[in-house]
Amino acid sequence: MDAATALVARPAAEVSAEFEVLVDHHLLHVQGPENVRMHDIVRGFARARAFEEDSRDELRQVLSRLVRHYLRWADQADHLLYPHRHRRGLSDALGSTRTPPDHDRKRWNGWLWAGPADASTWFQREWRNCLMLADHAIEHEMKENGALLVHALSQFLETQGRREDAGRAQETAVRAARETLSPATLAQALFELSFTRFRIGHHAAALEHATEALSIFRSSGDRRAEAKTLDRIGIVLWTTARYREALAHHQEAQDLHRKAGDPHGEADSLGYAAIALWHLGRYGDALQHLNFSLDMCRRSGDRRREAMVLNNLGNVQRQRGFHRDAVRYYEESSAIFKQIGGVQNEAILKNNIGGVHHYKVDYPSALRCYREAITVFREIGDRRNTADALNSIGAVYLLMGRPSEALVHHQQAEGAARDVGDPYQQLQALRGMADAHQACGRYPLALDHYHKALDISVPYQQAKAHEGIAATVLHLQGEQAARIHWRQAL
């Protein structure tokens, strides 16, 4: 109804009355309190009449009104759902404030909805229409507004795991921004496309897009966007096991956020740096960074980021062997994500809780959690976390005395990790394959896989690889030959 009112630029009461007539004659189908759908015959007739009777300029004005209508609504939904997100200002595109005409809607502090839940419902109902409209606008000489509509949708699509839809739309937005020679729009589109590429495991493309965006943000003097992009590059780097490079990027981002007086951005950088520190074995520093980040997230009211930090605190504590603390953090994180939504994050938590069951020797519960998580990862195209879950399943099967099944899962994980360029998961898979071969008495094969793992490992993982080599050499050559590897593990 609201879209139709914007389309014809007439009072809502008049449009509503005409809709009722069309519904009574079964020419419109009511699909819900906010949604109607044209009969196919009516749609075809209306389309034909529009092209026959309306001029190109009139059609362009209609499209402009509709795009601006959806841009206003999407922008408000985005602000309500993701208040801490770094975003483009839309005042120039909208030509006024973000608040659209009332259309007899309830307002909440000047907004169109009663709160974030209503904004989420609107996005769930309209995101496909928004993407089709953005694509149509870009193809019909409204490239800037079409790209901005994609921008307004990007965080929602990411949260919902709609990676393929987001990627297609963001590629179109990048192309449109290049054609309009709009550096700010191009940088933002590249920034968002880089994260979508990262999420589906295309790390080289993610780095390329983020690096180009960084150059544009630096040229324009947008220091906050520069810091956000440095953090994005750091995320890709630690995912590909380049932990020291990642740490340097997050530290640089933290300095920029501090100089800009942006404590929320600084909290983000600290949280990301903590992950690099954790993988470097600096657990104390990682915990310090995460606790500081958690405090700042709570002060700013960023519930989504708070939940992510809690999850990472759980990961570090689990790695340190403090499983009770890990469970507490995971439960706190899970409670938040159940309130605010986030398909991927809930699956990651399920995978992590599986790890706690794993430690407690509750293997059936661990397998159930891992399988529930991997189903979601596969649905949303998250190959990196798919590899993680496969490795975890393999490790459980090995402990259950089923090395053949363990080997199959680690082999699948190794292939997935290699495809996405994730050395950490590839290393876990190689070690798991070696452990499975060793359990089956295939010691030469086990030794070969341990050496492959050693070649790509960082210090902690090198120690684990040497531990496996020592156990294998013990069977092949005896205690004296194994001692040197035990010493290296220590």
TrEMBL record:
InterPro entries: TPR-like_helical_dom_sf, TPR_rpt. Coiled coil: none annotated. This is Tetratricopeptide repeat protein. It comes from Actinomadura physcomitrii. It comes from the Bacteria.
